Amino acid sequence: MARPKVPVWALPVLAMLPIWAVVYAGALVVPEKGITDPVLLEGQGIYNQSCASCHGNDGGGGTGRPLSGGEVLLTFPDPAEHIAWVVNGSPAAGTPYGNPERPGGQHISSETSGGAMPAFGDSLTEEEILAVVRYEREILGGETESALAAGEGGAGGEGAPTAPDEGGEGSGGAPAGEAEAEGGDVGNEAEGGGGAKGEGAAGS
Which of the two ends of the chain, N or C, has the fewest CB atoms closer than 10 A to its terminal CB? Predict the structure, then answer.
């Protein structure tokens, strides 16, 4: 018995099906609402490119600590310390960091499976660091009164340490060389954040 032939007119229709499927799927994606600030949009792009792989797309955590639900604000209530963490990376493994009055106590460096976080003071500009820190605090962390948005601080501003000689207990972070020695991969955000630019940042 002869096998029925596919009508000639059906061939272009079949060829177009994969394209239609992609277009249809794209139409179902709901864009994130509410971000109109260009600085936050820049921070979102930086975060998505390198930070999300460890901290999760929504900041819920993974191999890196969670940032959403106010977690990053509990760890770094002072935005200058959050900035310093991104600039300098993790302190030495086993060193407590962040707010000493945090419920449950301070976090411990390299305690998570992601390991240490590299420093980004040399790979990101001050503006990029400010953008990703603001995104983590305001969009992921839910901060409603942003001192950074009000211009009360910045990556190079007063009260925002950028390259201390030593990382210490409760400090924002360690020197860039020390952070790299801890095995942070500049392409892979770990305990507190990001990768190189193609970014990374972040913190907790």
Answer: N
C-alpha separations of 185 from 35, 45, 122, 181 in Å: 30, 20, 14, 10
Which one, of 24, 149, 6, 162, lies nearest residue 85 by Cα?
162
Q: Report the pLDDT value the prediction gives residue 171, as an integer from 0 to 100.
A: 43
The superfamily (CATH) of domain 34-181 is Cytochrome c-like domain (1.10.760.10)
Nearest to 75 by CA among 131, 8, 141: 141
pLDDT score for 54: 84
Find how far residue 33's CA is from the centre of its chain. Answer: 19
Integer-rounded Cα radius of gyration of the chain = 21
